[in-house]
Write a structure and sequence with these properties.
By secondary structure, this protein is mainly α. The protein contains five helices and two strands, in the order αβαααβα.
Length: 206
């Protein structure tokens, strides 16, 4: 009987402790994905990334055009080397020119392939760095709003693993977003144009 009373008393004290802790802990939710996508600096970063992608595409096209011209020239050299009317010495010279041109084309193709790989890696690195910097800025805005609002914990409502249920009453997304875009130099009333070089939140994203 004494053990039962002890267990009941312990349970009551535990419930009271949890209730007290819950009363002192003020929770809020925020949609980090929405903040990231609607932050004006994200749009500026996307525009910058698209500009760099356009520059790289032009460089690749110029290299590919040069390669096409070299291949056309190679075919002409092959035809000239197969001319039966020329002397053996001249044929040997032309065959050497064909070999040299083939080596030139092979080197140009390798350079083009390497440049494409480096360009893709460069764009990926630039996107990740921009995303990481933006997420860091957003987290600071959230932290500042949490402090001013007296929130002890802010949960990311965009992550299904983090929030099982939220009624939205303590969601501070709109407030934080308004502070983030207060000094925006661009018009945010219209959605951004679709871009092939969008910033991926990747592993640095919330």
């Amino acid at each position: 009987m004494k053990n039962l009373r002890y267990l009941i008393l312990t349970a009551v004290l535990l419930i009271a402790t949890v209730a007290s802790a819950s009363a002192q802990t003020k929770l809020a939710t925020v949609d980090m994905k929405k903040l990231f996508n609607r932050y004006y600096k994200t749009r500026l970063a996307q525009t910058s990334l698209e500009g760099r992608k356009t520059e790289l595409r032009k460089e690749i096209k110029d290299m590919a055009d040069g390669l096409d011209k070299a291949q056309t020239n190679y075919k002409q050299l092959v035809e000239q080397a197969n001319d039966q009317a020329i002397s053996p010495d001249e044929r040997a010279k032309r065959q050497q020119a064909v070999t040299d041109k083939a080596n030139e084309i092979n080197n140009s193709q390798n350079s083009l392939n390497q440049f494409q790989r480096q360009a893709e890696a460069q764009l990926g690195d630039q996107s990740q760095r921009m995303s990481a910097n933006l997420v860091g800025e957003i987290q600071k805005y959230v932290a500042d709003q949490a402090k001013s609002g007296g929130y002890s914990i802010v949960l990311n409502s965009a992550s299904v693993e983090t929030v099982v249920y939220a009624n939205g009453s303590n969601d501070i997304t709109a407030t934080v977003l308004a502070q983030m875009n207060a000094g925006s130099p661009i018009d945010l009333s219209t959605p951004p144009a679709s871009s092939g070089a969008s910033l991926s939140m990747g592993t640095n994203a919330p």
